[in-house]
Amino acid sequence: MNETDLKARTKLFARRVLRLVEALPRTRSGNILAGQLGRSGTSVGANYRSACRARSLADFVSKLGIVEEEADESAFWMELVIEKEMLVAGKVVPLWAEANALTAIMVRSRETAGGRLRKSKS
What we know:
mainly alpha, elongated, de novo design (two linked rop proteins), about 120 residues
């Protein structure tokens, strides 16, 4: 998967997160989870774009770490939505799986870039 594909994938993820957020109940806990998930889910794509504009390999590795954290955080909020039965699990699980897939992609990318960074310093 190349940079353009990942930019599109993370933007689609953000749009899907926003649809999920809109579907959450307008309760105190629903509003809390909507806010948290909305911020972390949209941050994945924004921070990935930022990583693509990194000024150095070290900056790229650092910014990918932020993307990884935001994707994982998004998965956490979705787990709470599922566990609290705020929405039908079948509607949330595919997006939760995508959050986990994006987390795994970013972990692998960060590890690969980090290896290149260590190699360039030696």
